[in-house]
Amino acid sequence: MRFVATVNGRAETVEVTGLDGRYRLAIGEQVIDVDARRIADGLYSLLVDGVSHVADVSPGKRGARVDVGGATYQVEVEEHARHVIRTRGGAGATGGTQTITAPLPGKITHVAVAPGDRVERGDTVVVIEAMKMENEFTAAAAGVVTEVRVQPGQPVNPGDILVIIGVRL
């Protein structure tokens, strides 16, 4: 299965195969064999390419904090398809505005903003149900919502403009 792991702000595609605690991870050209076992709530024993580690994992609002080998990492993991939909869904800020567009056909299930609302980077703006998954679209930058062109229950097609945000520069 393919995932995108974001560690301390840097995203990498990871292909994971295996089961029952024994996995092979392909990260670019690098292949890593991992034996992972839960030893207590939030504690994991990892054997990574023959080297033993203990990871302390604390779930957070976005991802988890992972302490391993004296280092701390902020880790977020999501399915590759969901990451592609979220990041290629037109949530880009250019020329003082951010236009969020639908990346594929779906149905609006939730609109979290209205014109005039202030949003911060990462705030949920709209949710689309597509391919039997709910896909949350967030503000890529802080700003003020200038237009909301959709409402719950409305079908959308690829490229349809959902929300426009005036970006604070």
Tell me briefly what this model is.
The protein is mainly β. 5% of the residues lie in helices and 63% in strands. A hairpin with a 2-residue loop joins strand 13 and strand 14 (133-138).
In one word, what is the shape? elongated
Oligomer: single chain
SS-based structural class? Answer: mainly beta
Taking the alpha carbons of the first and last residues, their distance comes to 39 Å
Count of extended strands: 17
Radius of gyration: 19 Å
Helix segment count?
Answer: 1
Q: Tell me the helix content.
A: under 10%
Determine the strand fraction and express it as a percent band: over 45%
User: Looking across the biggest beta sheet, what order are the strands in?
Assistant: 1-2-3-4-5-6-7-8
Low-confidence stretches: 89-95
CATH 2nd-level architecture of the largest domain = Beta Barrel
Helix and strand sequence: EEEEEEEEHEEEEEEEEE
What count of domains describes the coordinates?
2
Mean pLDDT: 86
How would you describe this structure in keywords?
mainly beta, 169 residues, 2 domains, Glycoprotein, Type 4 Pilin, 5-stranded antiparallel sheet, OB fold (Dihydrolipoamide Acetyltransferase, E2P)
Describe this structure in words.
It is built from 1 helix and 17 strands. An 8-stranded antiparallel β-barrel has the order 1-2-3-4-5-6-7-8. The protein has a 5-stranded antiparallel sheet with strand order 9-10-17-15-12, with no helix packed on it. It has a 4-stranded antiparallel sheet with strand order 14-13-11-16, with helices on one face. The longest helix has 8 residues, at 80-87. The protein is mainly beta and 169 residues long.
